[in-house]
Every structure is written in C-alpha cells, then in structure tokens.
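Schema walk-through. Below, the input block comes first and the output block second. Nothing else is stored per chain. Lengths vary across the set, and this one has 241 residues.
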Amino acid sequence: MTRSPLVGLTLRAPDELNLNIPLLARNRAYFDALEAAGATPVGISASLSELRLRELFDVCDGICLPGGPDVGPKLYGEEPRADCSVDVDPELDRAEMLLVRWALDADKPLLAICRGPQLLNVALGGTLWQDVATMGVTEHNHYPSSPRGELTHDIEVAPASRLHRIVGDDVVGVNSVHHQAVRDLATDLVVSARAPDGLVEGVEHPGRRFVVGVQCHPEELYLERLWARRLFVDFVDATRG
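--- output ---
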C-alpha cells in the first residue's frame, strides 16, 4: 500500500500552562486538517538539535509552519519594542528558520499559517510590523477576542495567485488573529491576499513547487469552509511530487 505523505509540524512549549513540567504541544486542529487532506502529520520538537531536526526534515514530504508567538525582531535587524508587547520563543525561531531554509533549498512544499508567513518573509530577508495597532498601521482590530473559528473580516485574493486558483474566488471570509504582519516584503515573495485595510494576509513564492502562506487559521475552518479544505488538499497533493 502506498503510504500517505508525511508533513512535519513543529511542536513547542505551550505558554498558557504553568505546571512546572516541560511540555510540547500544538493545536489539534492542525493535525486533523492535515490528516483529512490525506497526510500523516509528524510532530517536530523545536528543542531538537540541528542534526535531529535535519533527520526528521529529510523523512518529511512537506512542512507546515503553524501559528505561535512573535518572530524575534532581531532576526530582521530590529530590537523588540516595549510598547508592542513582543512575545518571542528563540528556540522555536531557531528550529523553524532552519526548516524554512531547508524546505526552500530542497523545493519541499511548505504551508505557512499565521506566524508562518511572517517567519517565511523574515527568512527570505523581509521585515515585520511589530504591532500593527501600536505602530499606527491600521485602525482595524486584527486581534479580536472572538472564537478562533469565527470569521473576522474578508480578504481580497490576487487574481493571478496560486491562492486564487485554490479558493476559486476574489474575496473570502477569514479568521485572522494576529497583531504582527508583513512590513517589507521579501524579494522572492509575492502578495496573494490583503485585508480591506491593505494589510498583507497572504504570500507565496511563485518560483517553488508549493510555498503558500496565509495570515488566517484555515485549520479551524476546514470542516465548514470549502476554500480551507482545498488549501490543505492542494498542499498535500503537492507533497506527492
């Protein structure tokens, strides 16, 4: 029997628990959405050495970068601003920067979600807004307190993008929950979607087999939204070569 594609998904210490016990975790929705699309998710601990990370990377057919804490500003040449409440995980930054660079070098399919496209942009030389509200980028609240599966605003999808071919529409409702965003776009990336206020909500690398990033959380929508299911299916299909 032909095996299903293996998709690596980083695990990190959850910041909402205080049990004095080292833990590794990731929202179950990512695993469910990837499995429903035909993949077998493989947890990759951010604590692993570079050697062990590479071993797991090599057996994976694709990489999914999930949501998480802020990308460390020092990675794009800035100091963290105290007024922006920047929350970083250096261990996760290290691991995911390695995985992104390896995936790009090997042309291994990469699906980046929420923090994911931000990290992808930084890995390719771009920068971020440390906090879109504090820095006066937009008056729209991109970090609402609504449930993660609730739509918060629409995005306009670029007609010529791969994301447009996947979702099949010019406008879709999304559940973005973020306070940072792409500022200076990396040279190799193109914008595939924007929020009504102009904030970047989707990026992709047209020179690779599959490198797509979305600022929202499609893993929380795949049961109810066709476009979200199609995104995961297109990604997993790309991992099959």
